[in-house]
Amino acid sequence: MSIDIDRPTESSESAPEFVTVAEVVEEIDDAVEGTAPETVGEDGYETGDSATDLDDAPLGGGPTLRAAIEAVLLVVDTPVDATTLAQVCERPLAEVEACLETLAAEYAEEGRGIALREVAGGWRFYTREECATVVERFVRDGQQARLTQAALETLAVVAYRQPVNRARVSAVRGVNVDGVMRTLLSRGLVEEAGTEHESGAILYRTTNLFLERLGLNDLSELPELAPLLPELSSLEGDLDLPSS
Length: 244
Hints:
By secondary structure, the chain is of the alpha+beta class. Among the domains are: 76 residues, Arc Repressor Mutant, subunit A (Orthogonal Bundle), CATH 1.10.10.10; 86 residues, Winged helix-like DNA-binding domain superfamily/Winged helix DNA-binding domain (Arc Repressor Mutant, subunit A). It is built from nine helices and seven strands. Helix 3 packs across helix 4, helix 6 packs across helix 7 and helix 6 packs across helix 8. The radius of gyration is 38 Å and the shape is elongated.
């Protein structure tokens, strides 16, 4: 493209008219308008354009930074620092820190059931304090998972032979019951009932919750199954039984 700076006037009798430098620059700009790339700033956005919020900026066609951070924080067991999040999200540390602060503020303002907190040098989701009663109720009473066959068998032994220690329950079932007993304790179906005088072993018995779940007033209403169980006295000392 050529631009004539020396422009003759319509009248040949007049002296040639010269354009100013500003006019030349303006003419060049008009000629190339729409073809020149915009200047990109240090933040990666085109100069003059309004950058989107950092937490909404797309990750190369993948999830947004906000979504990526939330996904990672949902699967962690311990607080994650911003530097680690920046590495896995492949974003600048400053953007990740800004996004974390924004998310934490939004959860607080909207009164959500979860809160994003910075603790122990990292970030993690927590249930909101106001929801503690509901969460506690769910953990204690709201679990609907059925007991395994092993747990049911162990519970039956405790119910018919209580108070009884773990070793004797293991002897009746022929397997180690430590893990199952912990499950029954956590469900509130069995509880400690002192210690055995001879050995000092902890004794266990069923709880009122056990009676409630079975619809019984007391243990005397249990079905007549005790005679079918082997005598514990015959199993004492015979604890090295198969663990299958």
